Structure formats: C-alpha cells, structure tokens
Amino acid sequence: MTALEAVSDRPATTGASHDEALARDVVEGLTSRPKRLAAKYHYDALGSQLFEAICELPWYPITRGESALLRRESAAILGRLDDPATLVELGGGNGEKLAILAAGLAEQGRAATVHLIDISETALARASRTVAGYPSVAVRGHCAPYADGLRAAVGELPPDRAAMVLFLGSNIGNLAPDEADRFLAAIGAALRPGDSLLLGTDLVKPEEDLLLAYDDPLGVTAAFNRNLLVRLNRELDADFDIEQFTHRVVWNARESCVESYLVSRAEQTVCIPAAGCCVRFAAGETIWTESSYKYRADAVVDMAARAGFAYGAQWIEPDAAFALTLLDAP
Known about the structure:
Layout: H1 18-30, E1 35-36, H2 45-56, H3 62-72, H4 74-78, E2 85-90, H5 96-107, E3 112-118, H6 121-131, E4 137-143, H7 146-156, E5 164-167, H8 177-190, E6 196-202, H9 207-214, H10 220-236, E7 245-252, E8 257-264, E9 268-272, E10 277-281, E11 286-293, H11 297-306, E12 310-317, E13 322-328
Parallel strand pairs: 1-11, 2-3, 2-5, 3-4, 5-6
Antiparallel strand pairs: 6-13, 7-8, 8-11, 9-10, 12-13
Helix pairs in contact: 2-10, 3-5
C-alpha cells in the first residue's frame, strides 16, 4: 500500500476479493502484540452513517470549525485558483465542504472542474449529487485509491491550468507522523509547479475536550468503534459478543494523539471462520483501532515543509481549534 492509499476508507485490492483482504488484515492485526484493527475498516455502510452522526455532535467540533473557516476564507482560497478553476478532492465524504467552495465560485460567476477521488463508489455518488446543484461546476469522479486517482486527475488537466488539491477533515491525523510525511511527499510528487494543497488539521486542545469528542455522552463514537466487530461478524462469520467489548479513549500527550481501543471485558475466545482462526483475549486486553493526531499550527507548516511544500497561508478557527493551511506544490 502506498502512502497515498494508506488513508483510504477501504483497502486497495490486488486481485483478492474484499473479504480476502479484510480476512488477511484481521488475522495479521489480531495476532499482533498488542492487538489491532485497521481504522479504515470502520467505514462500512453503517460505520459511514455513524461517522456522519458524530460530525453533528456538539462535542465534535472538527466539521463545524472547518466549514466555518471555508465560508469565512472562501474568497481568499478561490482567489488562488485559475479561471476556470480546477479542484481535486481526496476522500471528500458527502461533498458538503466542497459545496461551500462551489457556492463561492457560483457567486463569482466562475466555471470550475472538480475531480473527486475515493475508493467508495457510494461516497463518490453522494458527493457528486451534492456538487451537482451548481451548474457551472463540472464533476469528474475517480473510483480509485488516492494515489491512482490523483495521478489520473492530474493527467487530465490542461498543462497551463493549475489545480488545488483538497485534503480536509483532518484526515491526515489518521496517519502516524512518518506515514503523514510520506503521504505529503507522495502528493507533492504527483503535483506540478503552480499546483497547491489545502490541508485541514485539528489542533491540540484541552484533554477534556478531546476525550469528549471521541467518547461522547450519547455513545455514538462508542457505537462507531464497536461497529468494527459487527462488521467482522457479518463479513467474516466471526462470533464476537459485542457486549463483551467496551470503547476506551486515551489522550497520549507525548505523541499528541487520541487513541481509541476496544477492551475485552472478560477472558474469552473469538472464532473467525472466514479468516481461518480463533483469537484468545485476556480480561482487560485491548484492540487498538485508531489514533487521531492533533497538531500545533506551526507544526503543520513544518510537516509540509519536510515534504517540499512552500507555505502559502494559514487560517485558524479559534473556537474549534482547527486550521486550514494553503501550501504551494514543490
């Protein structure tokens, strides 16, 4: 898997069926020490809907903060685009954030071409429908891992028209620091002089606020995490007793990340027939399911510089502690 593929919500396939890839990853993860499950497997149909619900929670400010920034700074962001404009979004979900910029272009009477890149056909269809409300915006979908989709999109661009790549939602926070460095370097290598990257990042905030964002009082984030086991029961015929696993969130200040776990309530054995294995759990044993890295504003600029990007601008929403950073391609 390349760095650009690492944060896709589904794995790239190389001839194996999706179930085979899932089974292989589950065996590898649950026989590791400590046990782990890849965060990308959260996003089946139910997981995607639960995540959209999380984004509406009052304790999860990322989506609201980023959307507020996009509205507030729309003119400055769009002022960096050629005419007609070209935008390329990696993993844009339902397209609501992209629609903010599309609305700004429509208000300015400008035409644009938008390239949507996602491994999920459902996500592409939803985002396309959202942006389709702006007749001056042409939409091209690329159902592919980020690496392949970005190369395809750039290959279609006129050589004299610069593009802006959007990687929003603090999705880069799902990558460990070394993975994030490789990911940004891979984006930079795919872009051309004059292209740019708009990067959304969640910033460090008080520990209490972070823990509430990832372990809310309504239990939506807990359901999102435990749905991983529901998915394994459905797709791999596993026999996880969902009630025997609890959701736990920890703020790791040294690594600057929120860590999410599933914790076994008791000593138990779980069999996963489609993966050809059974797994023993001790009481209190954890499965790591996600790390969400948080940043300082200056650290975002430093991270981009290591990948060869030049600083363009940075905007911060103080209430949500969220940053948008505009970067020029190497």
